[in-house]
Specification:
Layout: E1 9-13, H1 18-29, E2 33-38, H2 43-52, E3 55-58, H3 66-78, E4 83-86, H4 102-129, E5 133-138, H5 151-171, E6 176-183, E7 186-187, H6 189-192, H7 197-205, H8 209-220, E8 229-230, H9 231-242, E9 253-256
Parallel strand pairs: 1-2, 1-4, 2-3, 4-5, 5-6, 6-9, 7-8
Bound molecules: NADP nicotinamide-adenine-dinucleotide phosphate (NAP).
Residues 14-20, 37-40, 60-62, 87-89, 111, 138, 140, 183, 185-186, 188-191 line the site of NADP nicotinamide-adenine-dinucleotide phosphate.
Length: 264
C-alpha cells in the first residue's frame, strides 16, 4: 500500500530510542524527510541518518524553547513541515501522590504535555500552509485509566488527549488533522532501562525483568493478547494516521493495548 508519505517533512519528538525511534524509522522507510529531536543522538538514530537521511537534532524538549527550536530547524532545512508527531513523554513510579513536589509535577508536565503544546504552537502555522497537515500525539491508556503510581503522568496524558481533541476541532476546517494514539505497555527503554518499570515489576514478582515483560505484565494487567505492544506496531499506526489515506480521520484516539481496556 502506498501511504503517500514520500517527501513529506515530519518532525518527531523524543526520537533517540523506543517508540520515537521506531516512528522515525518507519517514516524514513516510507521516504519522508524526518527531523528527529532528543537530548542524545544514539547509534540507532545515527544509523537512520545513514539509511534514510534522518536529521537528528540534539535538543532538550522539556524547555520552553526546545520544541520551537526543533520545528524551526525543520523549516530552515526543508522550508515546510507537514507532519508533527508529539511523542515525548516521561513517567516516574511514585509511592504516593504526597511524595510529588512542585518541581516534579512541573517536570512531568513539561515533558508530557507542554512539549506537545509548544511543538504544536510552533508547527501549526506551517501545517496550515501544507496541503493536508497532520499532528499525531502519543498519549497513553493512562489518560482515561489513571494509575495512582503515575498520577502526574496520567493527568498530563489526559491533558494531551484533551489537547488533541480541541486542536482537531479548531483546525480540521483549515485542513489540519489531529489524532492521538493511546498505547498500553510497549517494549521500550521506558520499561526496560535499568531501574525502570520492568525491574520494579520483576522485584515485586520475584522474576527476571524479561519474564516480567513477557509474562507478569500481560497477566497482571489483563492484556487479552497475552503480550505487550512492540514499538514498531505503534509506529505503523502513526504512519497510517499521518497518511492522506486517513484523510477524514481527525479528533480520534486509537488505543493499542492488546485489549487491556475492557470498556467500550
Ligand atoms: N513504553 C510504554 O509502555 C508507553 C505506553 C504508553 C505511552 N507511552 C508514551 O510513548 C512515548 C514514548 O515512550 P517510550 O516508551 O518510547 O519512551 P522512552 O523509551 O523512555 O524514550 C523516550 C525518548 O524521549 C527522549 N527524551 C527524554 N527526555 C527528553 C528531553 N528532555 N528532551 C528531548 N528528548 C527527550 C529520549 O531521548 P534522550 O534521553 O536522548 O533525550 C528518548 O528518545 C511517551 O510519550 C510515553 O509516555 C509509552
Amino acid at each position: 500500500m502506498d501511504l503517500q508519505i514520500k517527501d513529506k517533512v515530519a518532525v518527531v519528538t523524543g526520537a533517540s530510542k523506543g517508540i520515537g525511534l521506531a516512528i522515525a524509522d518507519a517514516f524514513g522507510r516510507e521516504g519522508a524527510h524526518v527531523v528527529a529531536g532528543s537530548r542524545s543522538i544514539t547509534p540507532e538514530l545515527e544509523a537512520l541518518h545513514e539509511k534514510y537521511g534522518v536529521t537528528a537534532v540534539p535538543v532538550d524538549l522539556s524547555t520552553a524553547d526546545g520544541p520551537g527550536t526543533l520545528v524551526r530547524l525543520a523549516v530552515d532545512q526543508y522550508g515546510r513541515v507537514e507532519i508533527l508527531v508529539n511523542n515525548l513523554g516521561a513517567a516516574t513510579s511514585r509511592p504516593s501522590f504526597l511524595d510529588i513536589d512542585e518541581a516534579e509535577w512541573q517536570r512531568i508536565f513539561n515533558m508530557t504535555l507542554f512539549s506537545a503544546v509548544r511543538a504544536s504552537r510552533a508547527a501549526l502555522p506551517h501545517l496550515l500552509d501544507a496541503d493536508g497537515g497532520a499532528i499525531i500525539n502519543i498519549s497513553s491508556i493512562n489518560a482515561r485509566m489513571p494509575f495512582p503510581a503515575v498520577v502526574d503522568y496520567s493527568a498530563a496524558k489526559a491533558g494531551l488527549s484533551s489537547l488533541s481533541k480541541s486542536l482537531s476541532e479548531e483546525f480540521a476546517p483549515r485542513g489540519v488533522r489531529v489524532n492521538a494514539i493511546a498505547p498500553g505497555p510497549v517494549r521500550t527503554p521506558f520499561w526496560t532501562a535499568p531501574g525502570a518499570f520492568a525491574d520494579a515489576t520483576a522485584a515485586q514478582a520475584g522474576t527476571t525483568a524479561q519474564e516480567a515483560m513477557d509474562v507478569v505484565v500481560p497477566k497482571s494487567m489483563g492484556i487479552s493478547t497475552r503480550r505487550i505492544t512492540e514499538a514498531h506496531e505503534v509506529a505503523a499506526l502513526t504512519l497510517f494516521l499521518a497518511s492522506p489515506l486517513a484523510g477524514n480521520i481527525t479528533g480520534a484516539e486509537f488505543t493499542i493495548d492488546g485489549g487491556q481496556i475492557k470498556t467500550l
